[in-house]
Prior knowledge:
The structure holds two protein chains of two kinds.
Chain A: H1 3-19, H2 21-58, E1 61-65, H3 71-82, E2 87-93, H4 95-104, E3 125-130, H5 136-145, E4 149-153, H6 156-198, H7 200-208, H8 213-252, H9 264-294
Antiparallel strand pairs in A: 1-3, 1-4, 2-3
Helix pairs in contact in A: 1-2, 1-8, 2-6, 2-8, 2-9, 6-9, 8-9
Chain B: E1 2-10, E2 16-25, E3 30-34, H1 41-49, E4 56-61, E5 64-65, H2 74-78, E6 81-84, H3 96-105, H4 111-124, H5 140-152, E7 158-162, H6 170-185, E8 189-194, H7 197-202, E9 206-211, E10 214-219
Parallel strand pairs in B: 3-8, 3-9, 6-7, 7-8
Antiparallel strand pairs in B: 1-2, 1-4, 4-5, 9-10
Amino acid sequence: MNRNRIGYFFREGLGSIFSHGFMSFASVCVIVACLIIMGSFTLLVLNVNNMIKQWESENQVIAFVDEALTDEQAKALETQLESLENVTEAIFVSRDDALAKYLSSFDPDENDLFSDLEPTVLRHRYMVYLEDIEHMADTQIRLNEINGIAKVNAHLEISEGFVTVSRIVGLVSLSIILILLIVSMFIMANTIKLTTFDRKEEIAIMKMVGATNGFIRWPFVFEGLLLGLFGSLIAFLVQWGIYEVVVTQIGKSSAMQLIQALSFGKIALPLLGIFVATGFIVGIGGSLTVIRKYLKV
Amino acid sequence: MVRMTNVCKAYENGTKALKGITATIDDGEFVFLVGPSGSGKSTIIKLITGEIAPTVGSVIVNGYDMETIKPSQMPMLRRTLGVVFQDFRLIENKNVYDNVAFAMRVIGASSKEIKRRVPYVLELVGLDTRTRRKPEELSGGEQQRVAIARALVNNPRLIISDEPTGNLDPARSLEIMMLLDRINKLGTTVLVVTHEKELVNRFSKRVIAIDGGKVISDGMDGYYNYES
């Protein structure tokens, strides 16, 4: 396709947007609305996943070292533990450190009650951090199989809870995103359908004078593309504003202090990518679906 | 050139529009195709322009066999044709110049070619002083001249005019017919579909009359003797 033709298609597409101003406005509004709803769910998923990741990272497995091992032998297990699949880090905690941490969980005034407590009542241990808590049960079995590990404590029910929540949020959001994508494309197709219906005489003339299907199709594709991209950029800016307001409100609320929202800067680029790609797909997909029907002359 | 050999056309609803039409229109001819409503005139035009295919028989238009033509060749066939309709079919939001230039643009003609050809064609049809007018600002006769200019601008081998004077008064009708005659004298084959007896009889041209899907007369006497 040479530059002149691209220029022609672009001008025709742009011209059609303005000559069908109301319909173009309606399409952009629909795209903006759908993208904002879709974007809100995407942001929800990203934030929930982020929170789950944070909670996951705090949900470590404790591997207790056999009492029969010397301090050196106990420390030597670190390499073996970290070589296991799904283990990201194994931090050695000596008996003394474990006792100090245990005591620190009580009121300092009550520490006298434990003053006679010897570190030997506790075992050396490893705080084992996992890459994916979904495989916590498997990792627990493998940890138990290591010589020198006496017992492994893992909160399987919590990990399963995280995984379930993560899956439900992901699935619901994905379904809603897909539905909205289809709805947007359907509405875009209808908008283009009205435009093409309005221009069916023009298309018939083009066919009659010998225009190829490609030549007829391209201005409509450009029109859909421009509407989609314009809608996606507006939606992105509106989404940004809404997100900042919501995050500010969450920050002010004492009831929601536990929620740590992602900063928009971190997710702006991927979100913009999703919006532009969706605008692109909806715009081009919508116009191609409709124009095909009018080309059968 | 158009060659139809034993052409039959039956529509999906069972209507038999054509029942064995055989006719040839040679390059450079001026032919009137006449007949009453429902006689099959429109079906013949649709067969020539490739909108429909014959059920039986062969239709060859400017070297393209309509039975075997590929969809990708259809635009090329249509570039050899210029079609003029009764209702003009102009684009309302484009001016005279752009309506004519549009037909060149959509087949990928360069701006240079468009700037050279469109003024020439508009002058030929007598509209060189009204290039910036919108169709609604023109009379019926002038609008039909724009439609003829549009049909002519891509230099087709055959101009098909479907009831070109159907919406015009007798004086304007005569002007249009004289314009088509002039175009024919410049070398373009012209096929005019009409049922205006007086107009046909004013020109000494070949007249093909059809009725009930059959050719009932084909003569060079230029006399429309069929009662519609």
